[in-house]
Amino acid sequence: MHGFANPARFLRIARWLTPALLLAGLLLTTASLAWGLTGFPAERLQGETARIVVVHVPAAWLGMAGWLTIAVASLAEMVWRHPLAAIAARAAAVPGAAYTALCLASGSIWGRPAWGTWWVWDGRLTSMLVLLFLYFGYIALAQAVDREGGSSRFPAIFGLVGAINIPIIHYSTIWWRSLHQPPSITTGGSAMAPEFLVPVLAATLGFSLLFGGVVLARMRALLAEIQAEARLRRKAFEG
Amino acid sequence: MREALDQWDFVLAAYALGGIGTLALVAWSWLAMRAAERRRDETRGR
Fold first, then answer.
1. Is the confidence at residue A76, as pLDDT, over 90?
2. Is B20 touching A (CB cutoff 8 A)?
3. Quick check: ipTM above 0.85?
């Protein structure tokens, strides 16, 4: 990991990896969404609305993976003083928030025909909504620290403390009664039929590649802004 | 009496949201990156 701590080395790799991830992600996501719309029959109980799983599950995974990225990067920043860690954490915040919002919206759209309601205040939905508010708080805090010149440890601590919500989201359907079904895909296997599971996994991989590409693009943008500002300050001092 | 819902309306709404939202996110991050790197390169020449 420390091998990528040098921004010049990171940029050398990110220059080709960013478009590669975005291109591969766009192709796989487009194919898996087309597969989800036309590639398998209607589900026995839920009918056509079961196809929403191909959008909803990757969005839920990336909403949580985004915060895990923030938490791991925050740990690397605080423990190892990794120079790119704070940039990686900030870069994951907006895409993580976007996919959390997509998870909530697609779940709500699915809930109307499946449960008869757009929203219920149960453990799973509420903890996911809390995650979205945590993202908003993190983005606001990181921007304030960057603008006002405060310690970058404050967003890092916020990122680590907020990670407690991830196991709450995961176990919410087991701990509390919920309209939401328990996890269908676990390390022990899958409760999904293969004709649903394969497009869901393909879409999850496709959206994850896109997420990786977006995070790298955000990192490059943040790094370029820091480098430009440092150059301008140096020239102002020299001039 | 329950209202009749066309299931495809919900499916298409969820897919449109996922597709358009993802495309917007990719386009925004790519354009912001290009603009930031262009600004950085301009400071080199000043």
1. yes
2. no
3. yes
